[in-house]
Amino acid sequence: MSARGPATIGGVAGTKGKQKTARDMVLSMGVIVLAGLVMWLFIPHEDGKPTSSGSTTGWSC
After folding, report:
1. Which one-letter DSSP state was computed for residue 6?
2. What are the tens digits of pLDDT across the range 25-50?
3. What does the alpha-carbon distance between residue 25 and residue 11 come to, in Å, rounded to a whole number?
4. What pLDDT score does 38 carry?
5. Where are the alpha helices (DSSP H) in the chain?
6. What integer pLDDT is reported at residue 5 of this predicted model?
7. Would you give the DSSP letter of residue 10?
8. What is the rounded CA–CA span in Å between residue 22 and residue 29?
9. Rounded to an integer, what distance in angstroms lies between the CA atom of residue 32 and that of residue 43?
């Protein structure tokens, strides 16, 4: 019987796994950035114009 287990079948164990992990990490980061960009596009932004009342709460006295 051989001392080799299923982890060594097909060459060095872990080499392809590390490459796949790095690829998955890059793809995941791309999905996160894309989701952030979509959220940023749909959230209203201030256009830099001052409000007429000068109040930031919107309440009038």
Report:
1. G
2. 999 999 999 999 999 999 888 776 65
3. 24
4. 94
5. 15-42
6. 56
7. T
8. 11
9. 17
Residue type, 35: A
Token representation of residue 48: 């830099």
CB 16 within 8 A of CB 23: no
For residues 11-38, give the mean pLDDT.
84
The mean predicted confidence, pLDDT, of the chain is: 75
The Cα 24–Cα 10 span in angstroms is 22
- Write b or e for each residue in 35-45: b if 16 or more Cβ atoms lie within 10 A of its Cβ, otherwise e: eeeeeeeeeee
How many residues belong to the chain? 61
| Both tokens assigned to 27 | 């793809």
d(C-alpha 25, C-alpha 51), whole Å: 44
- The candidate with the shortest Cα–Cα distance to 11, out of 21, 19, 1, is 19
* φ and ψ of 19, to 5 deg: -65, -40
